[in-house]
Amino acid sequence: MITYNFILILLCLLHVTISTNVKINFREKEKEVLDQILGPGRYDARIRPAGANGTDGPALVWINIFVRSISKIDDVTMEYSVQLTFREQWQDERLKFNDFGGRLKYLTLTEASRVWMPDLFFSNEKEGHFHNIIMPNVYIRIHPHGSVLYSIRISLTLSCPMNLKLYPLDRQICSLRMASYGWTTDDLVFLWKEGDPVQVVKNLHLPRFTLEKFLTDYCNSKTNTGEYSCLKVDLLFKREFSYYLIQIYIPCCMLVIVSWVSFWLDQGAVPARVSLGVTTLLTMATQTSGINASLPPVSYTKAIDVWTGVCLTFVFGALLEFALVNYASRSDMHRENMKKQRMQCELEHAASLDATSDFIDTESNATFAMKPLVHHPGDPMNLEKVRQCEIHMQPERPNCCRSWLSKFPTRSKRIDVISRITFPLVFALFNVIYWSTYLFREEAEES
C-alpha cells in the first residue's frame, strides 16, 4: 500500500513537471481565435458595428494622421502632393475574444475585406495610390475588447485653391478633407482622436514653402440625401521670399539701374545709348514673360505684376528719354545754326549801313542842329528818369535750380541731368510705397 501511494505521488509530480515544461503555441491560438470570430456564419462585414456602449446610435470612428512628406506645391495647377499614414479606430463588439491572460495583445490582419470598414474618402483628392513595396503597407489590429485599428500608407495629390494677390509675399491654406461617402451621421460619425490627431514628421523641408502650423476642424456637409460626417486639416504654408528676392527682385533692380547708365553717356553716342536701352528693355520683357509662365492666368493683379510692370515702365522710360534728348539735341543744333545765320545777316546789314552813312556825310554840305544824345549828370530830366527806373526795377531773387541748370547751355544736356536725379528718386519712392503696402497687407493677413 505504501509502495502504491509512493508511485502515485511520483506520477503526479512527473505530470506537473511535464505540463510546466510544455509551451503553448499562441500563434495557433491566434488562428483558432480568428476562425472563431471571423468564421463563416459568425461575422458579417456588411453590417456596421453598434453605437457607443452597444446602443443603436451611430458608429464612432476616431481619425489620426501622420504626415510623412509634402513633395510639391504647384501654383499653376493649384495642387499639392502629400504622403501620409492614415489611421482609423473604432469599436466592434462582435470582435471581442479571450486574450489568454494577457498573452494575446492583439490580432493582426492584412485583408481589410474581412471586417467592416468605414466608407471614408478624400473629397478634394485628384490622384492617389497605395504603396505595395515590398508588401502592401496596410494592417488591421483587433484588440481583445473589440477595438479595431486600421492603418495604411497612401500618397495623395489634393486640390488647393490659392489666392495669389500677394504673390510672392503670400500665405496659402491647403486643406485635407475626409468624409463619409454613403453612411449618414445617423449611422457613422468621424471624430478626431483626442490628444494629438495630426502629427508631422520632424525636419519637414519644402523647396519654396514653410509649414507654419496646421488646424483640425469639422466640415459636415448636407445634401438632398442627408448629412454626412466630414473632417478637415488646414495646412498653413508661408512662401519663402528669399528665393524670389534673389531670382526676381534683385535682377529687376539691376536692369533698371543699368538702363540709367544711358543718362551719363554722351548725347552723340547714339549706337551705345540705343543698344543699351533696347537690350535692357528686351531682357526685362523676357524676365516678365518667364515669371508669368510659372503662374496661372488669373483675373486679378498680383504683387509681382506690379513690380515687373513698374520696372518695365522705368526701362521703357529711359529709352524714351533718349529719344527726347536726341530730338532736343537736333533742335539745339538747328537753333544754333539759325542764330549764326542771323548774326551774320546783322553784321552784313550793319556794314552796308555804315558804308551808306559815310557816303551821305561826304556828299552833304548842309548842317543840322542835333540834340545831344547824352545828358549831363546834372540835367534835371536825366535825374527824373533814373528815379523812375529805380522805382519800377526790382532786384531778381536768386534761384538755385535755375542758376544750376544755367551751367548746361543746351536743352538736351539739361534733360539728361534732370533724368539722372528724377529717375532714381521716383524709383526709390516707388520702393518705399511698394514694400510698405504689401508687407503691411501680409502682416494684416497673418493676424
Can you describe this structure?
This protein is α+β, with helices and mostly antiparallel strands and 447 residues long. The protein has helices spanning 2-21, 26-38, 241-259, 270-293, 303-363, 380-392, 400-405, 411-446; strands spanning 59-74, 79-91, 107-109, 120-122, 125-130, 138-142, 147-159, 171-180, 188-192, 198-200, 209-218, 221-223, 226-228, 230-239. It is rod-shaped. It starts with a helix and ends with a helix.
Quote the distance from N terminus to C terminus.
96 Å
Indicate the low-confidence ranges by residue numbers: 16-22, 365-371
Fraction of residues in β-strands? 15-25%
Order of helices and strands: HHEEEEEEEEEEEEEEHHHHHH
Total helical elements: 8
Form type: rod-shaped
- How confident is the prediction overall: mean pLDDT? 82
Describe the SSE topology.
Blueprint: H1 2-21, H2 26-38, E1 59-74, E2 79-91, E3 107-109, E4 120-122, E5 125-130, E6 138-142, E7 147-159, E8 171-180, E9 188-192, E10 198-200, E11 209-218, E12 221-223, E13 226-228, E14 230-239, H3 241-259, H4 270-293, H5 303-363, H6 380-392, H7 400-405, H8 411-446
Parallel strand pairs: 1-9, 1-10
Antiparallel strand pairs: 1-2, 2-7, 3-6, 4-8, 5-7, 6-7, 8-14, 11-14, 12-13
Helix pairs in contact: 3-4, 3-5, 4-5, 5-8
